[in-house]
């Protein structure tokens, strides 16, 4: 709107021509030194009447070549070029400002995309004196935007960009296909429309929280996320968030992946694992039961044997089978088929052996120090380890104290992060004489070094003054996985 005569326009939409003064000279000098913008004046008829260094660099004309010519010479050639140029001046005069983006032409005929601002200029009396035109070459920015849009369109995932108000400003074809919307239906849509209704309020709070601390990160870590299609169906998704600064303000670029297939495969794997676990559990239960049958048969056999030595052999066999059955019993109870807790195993085998040997162990005391959960051993080494423990403890119960009174010490401890130490010691009569490996007539003592080797243990026997002390140093569960 044209101002009243005598008023001075001081708005951003218009400029007032200053009088000829020192400030005017400084202003003209400032404008002329600007090289990134073309800044020039146009009279009321559309002819160029000033020209700065930025205009010369951008458009290729020097001042002598262009001053006095109609500014429509910068437009792309067409039949209505001058009419179009004058329409822009009329809009600027009527609305106080004209802005837009359009293609312009340089002196050499090359084209560039220009960001244009036209502002009417009035003198102090309010009379229109001309127009100020500011032009900026935005071709490089547009090329970057086009490349960015191309990258988004060709991305292997659905991509959606959202502004601070939560409205969608950019999306690719995969996003349209994933959510079931047609071309441009997503543009301007609130992001919450793509979220199931039961999550929308929470999603709004999360979006605001992200804006307060924007950083590239996955969304909803540890939670199941769902998208909502146009037809109302839901599907599981994963979302990666990336903050982006643009000329229109901060934006958030979301990469979205439909994980329906992955969830189905995961469910199938979980079902297969559950079936495998059930099967293994049943196998260990049946093995334990079968071993228990063998123990019962050996126990029945002892009642039909008259020779004391034979009954002892059958009793020792029962103890060995029982030590193996206990391994499977623990696996069945704990549902962990990868390892055995030796602390719990020692406590259980100690009770079984004391009960098995009855009167023989009645006056003997066993001091056991084996914390549960401290030392575990792999399944493939658990059986020889259990048999080794059985042989060492059985030997102490039967031979350490001929008079039937005394104490046996069993200790399980960690030496370091990868090794444990098992000690079975007594203050009994000790070994009758030094025994070379493999020369003992006792089956138990012949089995001990073989079992130690199978479980990867370093076995040593020491004089306990009096008595004997067996030490087995062996790797704990998972020690082989360390570098």
Automatic annotation (TrEMBL):
Q: What class of enzyme is it?
A: transferase
What are the EC numbers? 2.7.13.3
Q: Which residues form the PAS domain?
A: 23-94, 144-213
Q: Where are the transmembrane segments?
A: none
Q: Name one GO biological process term.
A: regulation of DNA-templated transcription
Q: One GO MF term, please?
A: protein histidine kinase activity
This protein's UniProt keywords:
ATP-binding, Kinase, Nucleotide-binding, Phosphoprotein, Transferase, Virulence
Report the residue ranges that make up the PAC domain in this protein: 98-150, 221-271
Q: Which reaction does it catalyse?
A: ATP + protein L-histidine = ADP + protein N-phospho-L-histidine
PROSITE patterns noted in UniProt: HIS_KIN, PAC, PAS
Q: What is this protein called?
A: histidine kinase
Natural source organism: Chromobacterium sinusclupearum
């Amino acid at each position: 709107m044209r101002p009243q005569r005598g008023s001075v326009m001081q708005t951003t939409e218009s400029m007032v021509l200053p009088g000829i003064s020192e400030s005017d000279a400084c202003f003209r000098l400032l404008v002329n030194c600007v090289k990134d913008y073309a800044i020039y004046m146009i009279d009321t008829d559309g002819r160029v009447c000033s020209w700065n260094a930025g205009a010369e660099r951008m458009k290729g004309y020097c001042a002598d070549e262009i001053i006095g010519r109609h500014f429509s010479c910068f437009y792309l050639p067409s039949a209505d070029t001058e009419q179009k140029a004058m329409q822009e001046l009329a809009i600027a005069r009527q609305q106080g400002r004209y802005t837009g983006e359009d293609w312009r032409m340089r002196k050499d005929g090359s084209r560039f995309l220009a960001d244009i601002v036209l502002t009417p200029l009035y003198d102090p009396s309010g009379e229109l004196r001309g127009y100020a035109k500011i032009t900026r070459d935005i071709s490089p920015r547009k090329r970057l935007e086009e490349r960015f849009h191309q990258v988004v369109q060709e991305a292997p995932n659905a991509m959606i960009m959202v502004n601070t108000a939560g409205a969608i400003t950019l999306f690719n074809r995969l996003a349209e296909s994933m959510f079931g919307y047609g071309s441009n239906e997503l543009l301007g849509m609130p992001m919450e429309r793509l979220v199931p209704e039961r999550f929308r309020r929470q999603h709004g709070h999360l979006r605001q929280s992200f804006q307060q601390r924007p950083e590239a990160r996955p969304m909803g870590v540890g939670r199941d996320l769902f998208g909502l299609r146009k037809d109302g169906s839901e599907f599981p998704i994963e979302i990666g968030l990336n903050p982006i600064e643009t000329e229109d303000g901060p934006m958030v670029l979301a990469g979205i992946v439909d994980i329906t297939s992955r969830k189905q495969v995961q469910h199938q794997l979980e079902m297969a694992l559950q079936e495998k676990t059930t099967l293994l559990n049943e196998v260990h239960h049946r093995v334990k039961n079968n071993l228990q049958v063998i123990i019962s048969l050996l126990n029945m056999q002892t009642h039909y044997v008259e020779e004391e030595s034979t009954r002892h052999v059958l009793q020792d066999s029962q103890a060995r089978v029982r030590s193996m059955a206990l391994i499977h019993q623990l696996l069945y109870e704990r549902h962990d088929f990868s390892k055995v807790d030796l602390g719990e195993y020692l406590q259980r085998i100690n009770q079984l052996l004391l009960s098995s040997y009855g009167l023989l162990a009645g006056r003997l005391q066993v001091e056991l120090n084996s914390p549960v959960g401290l030392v575990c051993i792999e399944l493939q080494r658990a059986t020889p380890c259990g048999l080794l423990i059985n042989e060492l403890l059985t030997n102490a119960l039967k031979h350490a104290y001929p008079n039937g009174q005394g104490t046996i010490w069993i200790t399980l401890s960690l030496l370091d992060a990868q090794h444990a130490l098992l000690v079975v010691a007594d203050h009994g009569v000790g070994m009758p004489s030094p025994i070379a490996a493999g020369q003992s007539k006792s089956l138990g003592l012949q089995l001990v070094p073989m079992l130690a080797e199978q479980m990867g243990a370093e076995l040593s026997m020491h004089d306990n003054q009096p008595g004997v002390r067996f030490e087995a140093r062996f790797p704990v569960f998972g020690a082989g996985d360390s570098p």
